[in-house]
Every structure is written in structure tokens, then in C-alpha cells.
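Take a specimen:
=====
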Amino acid sequence: MKRILFSFLCFLFAFAVQAQDLIVKSNGKEISAKVVEIGNTEVKYEQAGQIYSLPKSDILRIIYANGKSETFGQSSYKGAPVEVASAGWKGTAGAGADISLEPKYRRSSLYSILVKYASTEFCTDIVDVFYSIPIPDKFDDHNLKIRDINAYIPRNAEQQKAGQQKENVENFLLQNEIGRRLVAKWFDRDSRSGAFNLNLIFERGFNNASVSDIRIAEKSARGIPALADAGEELIGNTFIIVNDIRYVDKDKHTGLATAGLASSISELGAVTGVDTKEAVKEVNAARSAVSKKIEGFEVNVTSYLYRLNWTDDIAGVFYQNYWVTNASPDASLKGAFDNDKSTFTISYVGSQTVSSGNTSLLGINTKANETTIRREMIKKVCTRAIDDAIVQLQRNFDEFKVKMPLTSTSPITAYIGKKEGVTEDAKYEVLERQEDAKGRASYRRVGIVQPVKGKIWDNRYLSVEEGFEGAGLGATEFKKVSGDNFYPGMLIREIK
């Protein structure tokens, strides 16, 4: 019953989506509009009451509202015939076929929370920069309005016991009904009427597919249920990470960061014969421009990871008992969802503690005022520490691992790097998405790849400004360890 209800809702929404034509450009960009004229050299379309034109040479294909399509060109991928697996369909494409305009993959959603230590040194600064740190780009941003909680601080030794902070975090998550709020966000709930819709789920694309993928799925033997399954998988991959960030006051480290940097620059000048006096002078000036504590700023971060529970039974309760739209408002259903304290829950996955260590002023604009330098230094330290904690959590808990698509196969590349913990010793399995007779998706290992030494992208925060090796690569290059016939869009996942 649950799957039937959800499929019906998807059908209604998808029907509305199909009211317009879809123009797919050669570069993968998509335009939803009404095609009004196809000339010899250009296509005219109407969008928001305005008529626009586009050269036919820039168009790959047009998918019309009635489901028919017309191909004008080819995508940039021109390889050997390969087996294609995309959202809702599977087939064979010959050399030069438009198999994948843009690699897609199943992204987990992440909600990030800060544990703050009110009235402690640097608390205000840490809260300020935490709110400015974006969700890592390999996740969908599922942040709620509540972004920080007060830390548990024992008044004396008798009140201090192991696991107290974790208990404090879980009390907060339970009391604020975070599980129910996350579900409400997934279905774009109107807080006043209680109405739900599928806008966010379709925006994230049911398996992050493009609108054209959705329409292809609708025309496949599997049809709309493919979108339902994928949508439910996305909901079940919603995670909460609670970051307990603690400032480490180590006076003995004072001055080490920039003093070491000045020394390194001097040594570099001695080796290369380059005059580095001005560079050393600038670094020393920066040391005097900031307080010694900022110069050696260091934090320890304990990240607690939780996952939203989303099963067939939970989904069934939601669709049957709480689903309401603006077209058919129901105050009783709104109240029932608001008062449900037990259905929508979260589960603890694990935790990870990392230390930022000493961080230099490299990449920081040392010519700025002290307030700006202070903020940027704290943001750099906290951002990298949280990224490191996420990497360690992904290595320790398979369910939190991110599958990333191959962006090319000659050479083999993917948009991951040191920010995601890529090292030359790491290995990644290459996965191909398959479907069984009932259309259920699964992943099959078809090979193993390994990063190429010297070709690892350094995508960490401020890596370009610091001039780190690999910062300008834009992607990491891999070498084949085993397997064959890889194609763009296949997924890779780190293995132990």
C-alpha cells in the first residue's frame, strides 16, 4: 500500500513536470520551456512569457512534453560501445553515443550541528565561523534552523562521567523531534497548513537524475516505481553530524605556526638563491598583527554521527496517516503529524575525535585587520578539522561512505581529493548500477582503481591560497588496478 501511494503521488507530480518541453544542450545544461519553432539553424522557445532562440548546434536533444524526443547532436563522450545504466533504464550505446551528459550519483543528505561552550574563550568566534562553513559539496544540505546546542559542562568532578556529552546530544535530538523535522523538510512541509509536496525530492532528482532521466524512467518498463525507490533511498541516507569543537589552550605552542613558516621561507631562499627577506618580513609582521593565541589556534573536534530511520513501515505510516496537500487541507492530519513523538526517529552510528594540530597563517590575508585575520584563522582550523572528522567517519562506517562518479576514463578521473582523504595508498572499487527482474537497484564491483602519485587534487579549504601541490588540478587521476570497460558515471567507493 505504501509503495502504491507514493508511486501515485510521484505520478501526479511528474505529470505536472511534463507540462513543458525539455531542451538538453550539448554541454549538459537543461532548459525547461515550450518549444514554439524549429528552424534551419535555430530553435525558438517560450519561457516565462518571453521568446528566446538557441542555435541548433548548441542542442543535443529535445524531450517534448508528450514523451517524444528529437536528437540534434552528440555529447562530448565518444568511446567504445558500452553498456549503459542510468536512472530507470539500461541498454547499450555505440561509439559516440550520448550515454551520460553529467555523471550522477546517490548523494547522502547532511545536517550539521555545533556543540557550543557558552562563556568560554573563543566561543563566539567558533559559533560565528561554524555558521559560515558550508556542508561538504559531496552531500546535499539538509540543515534545519536549529544549528547549535549548549554543551554539557559538569560543575564538579562528581558530575563528570564518560558519555555525558553524547547523552546531552541525544536528549537535544529527542526533545526537539529532529527526526520528524528532517522528514518534514524532505517533503517541503508548509508549517502553517501542514501540506506536503515532492518539490525537494524531485529537485534532488530521485537518484540525482536530471529531468530527462526522470522522463526516461517514466517511459521504461520499470516506470514511476523506479523514482519511488530511489526517493526513499535518498531519504534513508539522511545523516546528522554533531560537532563538539573545543579550543585547546596550549601556550607552549604560541608562535610556532608563523615562526616555523618564517624559518621555512628562509631555508627555501638559501636553497634556491632567491631573496626571501621581504617574504619573511611580511610573515613576521603578521605575527605581530595577531594575538599569540590566534597564531597557534588549535581545536579538538568530536563528531557524533546519527542517521534518520526510514523504513517501509515508517514510510507507510507517513503516506497513509499524514499526507495532505494545499489542494486538500486537513487540520486533523496536520495536528496528528505535529504531535507524533515516536514514529520518526534517528539512530546513533558512531563518533570520531580529531585534532586540528598547529595550523599556519598560509592562505590567510595577513594584510587585513586583526578581526578579519582572527576569523579566517579560526574558520580555516575548524573547517579542516570537521572535514577530517567526516573522512574518518566514512572510513569507519560503510553506510556513511560516499559513492562518487567517474568524470572521465581517459584518463580515469573523479572529483574527489585530499579533502575526502584521498592518498596514493588508497584503493577504490568501481561500481556499476544494475537492476533485477523487479527493477530493484544494486551495485556490482567491476574493477579497482588507485590514485596516481602526484595527481591527487588538493581541494582542502584554502589549499589554492597556500599554494599546495595539486591544488589546481580540479580532479584526482586514478590508475587501473583491475577491471575494464569503465565509463563516465560509474561510481567509485573507497575500500579497506
Remarks:
- Residues 262 and 399 are 44 Å apart (CA to CA).
- Residues 370-396 form the longest helix (27 residues).
